[in-house]
Every structure is written in C-alpha cells, then in structure tokens.
Amino acid sequence: MSEMRPSTARAFWGITLVAITAFCGLPRAACAQQASLQGVVISSSTGSPLEGVAVMLDRAGKQVYGALTDRNGFYVIGRIQPGPYVLRSQSIGYMEHRETVTLAADQPGRVNFRLEIAPVELEGISVTPEKGPTIRDLGRQVVTPADIRRVPVPAGTGDLATYIETLPGVATTSDRGGQVYVRGGTPAENLVLVDGIPIYQPFHIVGFFSVFPEDLVSSADFYAGGFGARYTGRTSSVLDVSLRDGNPNRIKGMASLSPFLAEAMVDGPVARGVSVIASARRSLIEQTSGALLGQKQPYSFDSELLKLTMLNGENQRCSALFLHTSDGGRLDPEETVSHIAWQNLLFGGRCVTQLTGFLRLAEVNFSYSGFNNDAVNRGASLFHSRVSKVEHDARLTTMIGTVPLYGGYHLSGEFTRYDLTELFGIGRLEDAIFGLDAYLEAALPLGNRVEVQPGVVLNGLPYAAVEPRVRASWQPFGRPTEKVQGAFGVYRQNLVGVSDMRDVTSAFTAWMVAPNDQPLQVTYGSLGWQQSLADGLRFSAEGYYKSMKNLPVPVWRATAAFTTDLTRADGTSYGGDARLEYTLPHLYAFLGYGYSWTEYESSQAEFASWYGEPVQSYHPPHDRRHQINAIVSFDAAGFKASARWQFGSGLPFTRPLGFDEAFNYTVDLYDPSKSYGTARMLLDRPFNGHLPMMHRLDVSLERGFDLPVGKLQLQAGAMNVYDRHNMFYYDLYTGRRVDQLPLAPYASVVLRSK
C-alpha cells in the first residue's frame, strides 16, 4: 500500500499546481486574446444528449477547429482566434447542422443545438463505422444499440449482456448464474454504473439477459482494463451505461413476447420540459421450458425501471432513476433443495449543468444501491449476504488553454452483512466502510500525433493513498485510422466479494470489507494497435499484463464447504486479443480471439497439512485460456439474419480424492462403531483438472412490418443450434453430469408504436 504522507501530499499538490499552470502554454495576456466555444448537442426526436458528434468551425470553407461531444452531449473548443465562423456538425444517421457564429475575445461563446434524424438512408454508400469492437479510444469501447441488436438473443429485443460476452477477454462459466469475468478478474472486481449509480449484479440468472435491454440503452462505455482516474473502487473492468431519456415530443410504447421473456415499455412527456420512461420485464422460461426444451428450467427473474428527466432551460438537465430486480432459481434443475436468489434496489438523481466561467460543465450525483444475495446449498447450508452503498459524487470539466481538465470527488458509505450457517459452524458479521477520494485528469496533445491523458486518484478514506494512471495514443503515420494505444495504472479495492471457488455452480457472493484493512491492489498495463485496412474493414490487437496483490481467497479446506475465513493470494494475469470487423450498408461481420493466462499463488498452513507444501500455485476456475467469437449479420428485402458462434477452452476444476464421515461432537458424543457421520467430500490439490471445451451456434431471422399503429417485428431463431452438450459441471457427490442449455428454439413478436 502506498500511503500518502503529509510531505508527499504537499509535493504532489505543488507539482499538480505547476502542471495546471503550465497547461495554458502561453502568457496570461496572450491567452486573454483568444475565444472559446462550448455547447450541448441533443437529439430532436428523443431529447437525449448525443455522444461522438463532430462539431467543427470553418473559415473560408476550411475546418480550422473541432471537437467531439462527450456522453453528456457536451463539447468545448478553446484557443480560438476571435471572429466569424461557420459552425457545423457531423454524425452518422443525423442531418448536418449549420449556423454562423461570431466569437469575441475573453467572452466564452455558447451554442446549443438539436440534430434531426436523417430522413432517408442512401443506398450503396459505404460508411466506415465510428464505433465497434475494433475501435477503442484510450481503452474505452463505446457500445450502441445498433451493436447490441446484432447478437441473437432469445427475445424480441437485444441485450447488452449478450453483446458484452462476445468481446475477447470477457468470460462466463455458463449460460446461467449471471457471472462475468474480465481479463482474469472476478465478478466482484467489475464496476457497473447505470446513469452514474453503481449496481452490484446487473446480469440475470439466465445469462442471455441483464437489466440493460436494447430499447433502454442510449450508449455504454466498456473498459476491459486501464480505465482512467474517473472510476474508482474496482480493479478489473468498467461498464458505464447511459439510459436514454423519455421522448419529449409524444408518448411511445413497446411490447415484446417470446418463450423466454415478456417486456413492456412506455415513454413520453408528462409536463413541459419533463419526460418519463418506464419499463418492466418478466421471465417466462420456467413456464415454457418443459415443452420447449424437454426439461423444466427452474429460473425466474424480473426487473422494473422508472426514469424521470427534467430540462431547466438549455443549460441544465436533471434526472431521477428507480430500478428494482429480482432473480431466483436452481442452477442444477435436478437438485431440488439447493436454491439461489438475489435482488437489486437502487435509486438516485443527477444534474448536469453547463457553465461559462472557469468551470465549463458540472455533473452532480446522489444515489443509493442495495443488493441481497441468498443461497441454500444441498439443504445443509444457509447463506445470506447484504451490501448497500450511499454515494455522492461530482465531476467537473474545465479548459486551461487548449487542454481539457477533468476533476471530481466521491463520498460514500458502504454497509455489509453476511450470515452463513454451515453444517459445522456459523459465521455472522456486520461492517461498514467510508470512502472519500478525489481525482484529476487531463488530456494533453503533444503535437498532432500524440495524446496523453495522465491522471491520479487521491484516497483520503478509509486510508491515504495515491493511484497514478496514464493513458496515451500515438498516430505514427499521422492518420487517425492507425493508432498505437497504451495504458498503465494502479487500482485498489476496499470492498471485496468472496465466492466458493471450489463449486463452479455457485453464484453466491459474500460481500465484506477487505480483511486487515489491506485492500486488493492491481497494477495494470496494456499496449495495442488498431487500424483501418480498407473501406469498412478494421483490425485491432491488444496485449495486457496484470499483477494482483492481496487477493482475498477462502482458506483452503480439502472438504467441500464454504468459508469466510480468508487469507491472501498474489496473482498474475496476462494475455491479449485480436479483432477483425467488416461493415457494409447491409452486411456486418466480426471475428474475435482472446488468450488469457491467470494464476494465483497462496501460502497456507492448510496446504502443508494436506499436501506437504505450504505454497500452492493454481489457475482459478475462471481461467479460460482460449476464446473465439464470430458474429455475422445481414439484412436484405426487409429481412435480417444474424448468427453468433462461440468457442471456449475448458475451465479448471478441483478433482475429488474420495469421501469420509464427519461427526459434530458439539452436539453429541457419537460412537463411530455404532453411528454413521455426515459424508464429506475430500478434494485434491486446487484446480488440477479441466472441464471439456465448449462451443455453440446461435441464429435468428427477423422481419419488420409497418402497421397503421406502429411497427411489428417478428423473429424466429434458436440457441445452441446443433445441440452441443456443453458441460456446466460434474456433480462430484452423485457422479452426475450437468450440461448447459440444449437446443432452444424460439419465436418472438415486438410491437413499437409510432
């Protein structure tokens, strides 16, 4: 742990102040002779801010200045020579906006405008995509609804969960359980935000679905690692989801029905400057799986969402969000006693305000997020874990010269409780942890080819520490279509989630404060290349290395039992991925390959007792060595066909040694010659075996029809088309193999109002 002493803190702030002063790059008098322009761009049809819009200033028919809008639709251009300009915008799918502006020195200009959706699509025009899985901007991948709907899902609409699982470096242990692993990290190490509010478990028990259906998502930023100083408290990945606002012009609705899912959504204006969007989803697989799959699948989930958006003039937007989810079922359909369930409840509000002084944009959030997790294991163990977080944070944007500067702080309290009743013991604990941190980040252009984004997180609570981070990109040939990108950073996590790694069917997580106040610490580095090979054809590759310290792992017991007795392990994870993407007006294809190698090393007295060596190195159960995903989507004559094929090498598991019988002498004095104890399974060295590889093909075909009341979409498809028997796990107690879902045909209908 890098504690920040007072002298270090003074030195750091001194260096920071000098750096900020130097960012201007010109004497104060010279800076005063220049103008600036800022504003917010929104969609006229949805009222939502538009990200990635190119805003340009032209003079004499040539572009002389420009910037891209962020996720709040905000753009800012500095160091402009005063005078008249033509402001224009450019964004795929929207009509160009043009107007004349006159900018004066020392008077920040402000132009907010709306973009109209392009009324027609030009046939035969090939447009190179600005977003997609091969395009990463300093580690950030922007995911849009168009990306989401390309992946087959057994429902009428696409889902962000299924799309994220197609990315190299993202692994799941099964199509059930809702557990997602990114580049060697555990699910508890992933930060997921929905409109700035953290959510502990956004993925449903059936792995095709999450709380982010296609019709609710405006855009999502995904970092597989190397994220900037803005995000704190997690060490593996970030999924930052922005939900769309309600339609400000008219009431619209959507209803969808399939054998897996029923959902409905409505949005529209409720008052002048106020809009709302409401959504409800409910699983149907438990009712339909008997006839559809040949075996009843005991899974159920539902979610309810309400978002209210208020516009206060042109310069302020506020929203309030409520979200509730509930999941439950048996991961093994034939194990009638075991059960897993979890619930999310979150609500909060945020305001984004455009300013014209030193601060240009301010975003303020207040939120509550709670998560309950329950499990019954073979009738002998009762587990319960609860975690909640109250948080306030602010994010600020300013310009110093031509350099954007970002800063902010997080203030939070997290409260945990777990109650674990085992056959031979009980564990209960309540705890709390309070956090306070601030961050600072800048975007520094070094010439026309290099951009560096240095940042730092200053932790004040629960302990003083510094987390340096830097991201950079280089255009070696001066072309934006060819880039080298890299990232380096230190990340810490004070709240940890502990799972029983020996049971691959376990989706239960016990949340707790890092033991002995020693947080999980990860040092991460990555380096990659991306380029455009031809019209519509893009390629990217990236390698990474992670060093992990203070990994909280359960004390090893050679008997299969959950425990919250924790010890520490160190870990190493490295790997890389390659991605190839091809986009034409009616054809899309993607091929991705990911390689990952993850190893933990732990020293425990228990290892010495059982295996004669106190130190054991092992690959954790989410260490998937090879992974391939291929997606093809084609539309013509009103039809759209999509297919996804996935492959994953076998996951590690722990082999059994045999059984013995145990007696609980705290209850009675048993006579082993006359009584039978409780059977216990004895396990071999950790994770010394591998499950078989898995692969699966999913397909869908859809057709849309225009009706007087709206648009009707019919879809048919199948998951696991060639009925591959992919092993979920092998029940060591009964010697029974449990497979993932078999061939699952489906048909769906979606109606969207005009």
Overview in brief:
By secondary structure, this protein is mostly beta strands.
Structure description:
The protein has 754 residues and is mainly beta. It has 2 domains: 33-115, Immunoglobulin-like (Sandwich); 140-753, Maltoporin, Chain A, CATH 2.40.170.20. Helix content is 6%, strand content 56%. It has 6 helices and 47 strands. The strands form 9 sheets. The protein has a 22-stranded antiparallel β-barrel. The chain has a 5-stranded mixed β-sheet with strand order 9-14-15-12-13. Strands 1, 4, 7 and 8 form a 4-stranded mixed β-sheet that branches. The longest helix has 18 residues, at 6-23. Residues 1-32 and 121-129 have low confidence and may be disordered.
Topology:
Elements: H1 6-23, H2 28-32, E1 35-43, E2 54-59, E3 62-68, E4 74-80, E5 83-90, E6 98-103, E7 109-110, E8 113-115, E9 140-143, H3 145-148, H4 160-164, E10 170-171, E11 181-182, E12 190-194, E13 197-198, E14 217-223, E15 237-243, E16 252-257, E17 261-271, E18 274-283, H5 285-293, E19 299-311, E20 316-329, E21 339-354, E22 359-377, E23 381-400, E24 403-422, E25 425-442, E26 444-446, E27 450-461, E28 465-474, E29 482-493, E30 495-498, E31 510-513, E32 520-534, E33 537-554, E34 566-583, E35 587-603, H6 605-611, E36 615-618, E37 626-636, E38 639-648, E39 652-653, E40 656-662, E41 678-683, E42 689-690, E43 694-707, E44 710-719, E45 727-731, E46 736-739, E47 744-753
Parallel strand pairs: 1-7, 1-8, 12-15
Antiparallel strand pairs: 1-4, 2-3, 2-5, 5-6, 9-14, 10-11, 12-13, 14-15, 16-17, 16-47, 17-18, 18-19, 19-20, 20-21, 21-22, 22-23, 23-24, 24-25, 25-27, 26-27, 27-28, 28-29, 29-32, 30-31, 32-33, 33-34, 34-35, 35-36, 35-37, 37-38, 38-43, 39-42, 40-41, 43-44, 44-47, 45-46
